Amino acid sequence: MPVHSLSANTAHGLSCATTDGVKIGPIGVWPPVVLAPMAGITNAAFRVLCREQGAGLFVCEMITTRALVERNPKTFRMIRFAESERPRSLQLYGVDPDIVGRAVRMIAEEDLADHVDLNFGCPVPKVTRRGGGSALPYKRNLLRRILRAAVANAGPLPVTMKMRKGIDDDHLTYLDAGRIAAEEGVAAIALHARTARQHYGGVADWEAIARLKEAVPEIPVLGNGDIWSADDALRMVARTGCDGVVVGRGCLGRPWLFKDLENAFNGSPERVRPTLGEVAAMMERHAAGLTECFDIERYAIADFRKHVGWYLKGFEVGSALRRELATAESLDGLREGLARLDHDQPWPPNTDTPRGKSGERQKVQLPDGWLDDPWDSVVPDEAESDISGG
Q1: DSSP label at 25?
Q2: How far apart are CA 389 and CA 97, in angstroms?
Q3: β-pairing verdict for 33-35 and 27-29
Q4: Whether pLDDT at 11 is above 50
């Protein structure tokens, strides 16, 4: 893909290039960039494409601890890593400290991954109504029990956590959760600077990332939220003092963003700007990779459909051809549509804008009485799901 020079924000990149990266336990990460785990997105097919573009830490889709310890076949398919993937990063969702501990011990003893991340940031109702994800840090002692069990069973593997600011503006938890994590031996913390109620709407509160860094200076803090370009990442680091960034929706349909991030943190103003033909080639590789992940081609192509609009955002593509690509039923059918794109069409301007889902929620779904006692450590009934995917 062609690389073009940009002049903006180069100074920030040069200052970042003098650092040694971020240490997550024994794992050194440079550039200090993490691919956020995203359900239905960050499978091996997508991770490989991102990893080819630039270095960093690339986390698989969230899986549930119960499904893992019960050796759910779907879950084991989800944690397959490509041969080229090192280090291997796996994110767990769990609410019961005992099951979390068993899952982490299983990962360590069976060499399933090199790094374990714990999800305390998922805002979707099927997770929060069980007391999991972004609802859980409100229960400070339950959070401590989970983190203690994970770290105690991890052996040499680093344990990290990803969280949000809290349930809503009246129930902020991130500073307490950060201190608990540091006390329990967590190797790094990532903060999505929104509340669960915000979901993916509004504007990320980068000042909260700065406050968290001040509260836990002894461990790395990674910032997440509203990073749509490499220059956004540099601005976040400069404004908040965070040790690195976590990129989620900004890379949807844009795996080459990780090349931009590598360039930016190394002080280079160059940014990748692919033609539509180069984007089409990436789309074909992504879909082909999914057929290996899913084993059944029609499932893989159906899963790829959601990516079509993200890849083509900003390009001039007729509605009929867009529809054909988004409804393809086979890899050959997708290839036929991709071949009819205007391959010489240049990268469109002004595309470093929000991608994926957005919008706020009226309320966060929680277990009955969840907000009554923030120090309660009782595991809610039916808290542990046996289905992975987030």
Answers
A1: T
A2: 20
A3: unpaired
A4: no
Asked if 219 contacts 190 with a C-beta cutoff of 8 angstroms, the reply is: no
What is the SS3 assignment for 52?
Answer: helix
At 162, list the tokens.
């990803």
Q: What is the mean pLDDT of residues 181-208?
A: 97
Which residue matches tokens 């036929």? 336
How high is the pLDDT of residue 390? 38
Tell me the C-alpha distance between 1 and 116, whole Å.
33
Could you say which of 16, 50, 122, 242 is catalytic?
A: 122
Q: How far apart are CA 132 and CA 248, in angstroms?
A: 20
Record the tokens describing residue 115, joined without a space: 């790094």
Nearest-angstrom CA–CA distance, 113 and 86: 9
Task: Please classify residue 285 by burial: count the beta carbons closer than 10 Å to its beta carbon, then call 0-12 exposed, 13-18 middle and 19+ buried.
Answer: middle
Considering the entire predicted model, what is its pTM?
A: 0.91
Half-sphere exposure of 262 (CA within 13 A, CB side): 18
Cα(203)–Cα(238) distance, integer angstroms = 18
**pLDDT tens for residues 111-164?**
999 999 999 999 999 999 999 999 999 999 999 999 999 999 999 999 999 999
Average pLDDT taken over every residue of the chain: 92
CA distances from 96 to 183, 351, 380 (A): 20, 42, 9
Length of the chain: 390
Pairing of strands 188-192, 63-64: unpaired
Active site residue 122: yes
Beta bridge partners of 59: 89
CA distance to 175, 179, 249, 289, per residue, from 312 (Å) = 39, 43, 15, 19
Report the C-alpha gap between 115 and 158 in whole angstroms: 5
Supply 7's token pair. 């002049």
DSSP characters for 213-243?
HHH-TTS-EEEES---SHHHHHHHHHHH--S
- What is the Cα–Cα distance from 98 to 149, expressed in whole angstroms? 7
Q: Would you state the pLDDT for residue 8? A: 35
Structure tokens at 289: 């990779």
